Amino acid sequence: MKFKLGEADVRGLKDRVIILTGGAGGIGRATAGRLAEEGAKVAILDLNGDGAATAAAEIGNGAIGIGLDIADQQAVIAAVDRVEAELGPVGGLVNNAGWDKMVPFLKSDAELWKRIVDVNLFGPVNVTHAVLTKMAERGEGRIVSVASDAGRVGSTGEAVYSYCKGGVIAFMKTLAREHARQGITCNSVCPGPTDTALLRDFDPEGKIVAALERAIPLRRVGQPEDYPGMIAFLLSDDAAFITGQVISVSGGLSMSG
Ligand SMILES: NC(=O)c1ccc[n+]([C@@H]2O[C@H](COP(=O)([O-])OP(=O)(O)OC[C@H]3O[C@@H](n4cnc5c(N)ncnc54)[C@H](O)[C@@H]3O)[C@@H](O)[C@H]2O)c1
To answer: Which of 196, 223, 230 to probe ligand 1 with, by most ligand atoms within 8 A of CB?
Structure first.
């Protein structure tokens, strides 16, 4: 299903420099396009450097693509410096890059745990530390982390990933408290199951998706286009009084209090 995007409809994103991780595909690619439509200058940081460059060329509006692993702190610091030199002061961050492999916990091993934690837990910590250092000096900024409903309600076969996503949610809440006086907001968006490479790798035959479609109140899995509106809103001036919040975008699959 494709949504027809209308005119720019959130305030304050024009010319704002936004770093978005994992923008070469899936939810990140759809979000990068929407942010550029809203007039933002987007820097896409992705393990897939060619994909990041292609996405940046496609979305336009001065976007740049940088290839890196968010688990590599030195590479992240260098990339954030480069974004500020080329595009200007960073006003928004979307921690979107993530990765998992679905395996029952007792069948998983330390090598897999380490990679999942490096990407999903240390990745957002590395990028947030580098960006927030600059935002705090200037006293403004917006951070949105794409966590997961797995971090709110659990997800079978995703124990270590769920632990990381729960950590990201708590991380955002704590930074929301630490930086509220500077007007920096930090929120989490939790997708439910979504039709991207991540889900297709788990479920090549579509059996899990078929079961999920029966369980999800809105009767479908998410599409990448379901998320950019909420992310753009939380980055915008319209969301200036919203911080430390966790918002599920999951067709009603989870209705957390
Ligand atoms: N697809 C789902 O069902 C689902 C559900 C809940 C949450 N999420 C979360 O949504 C976010 C986006 O996922 P998606 O479904 O669009 O996945 P995707 O696999 O389609 O895209 C993820 C992007 O992140 C990049 N990436 C992965 N590891 C990276 C690293 N170490 N450094 C830099 N870039 C890296 C990939 O190259 C890719 O471009 C992730 O945080 C994911 O955990 C996805």
So the answer is: 196
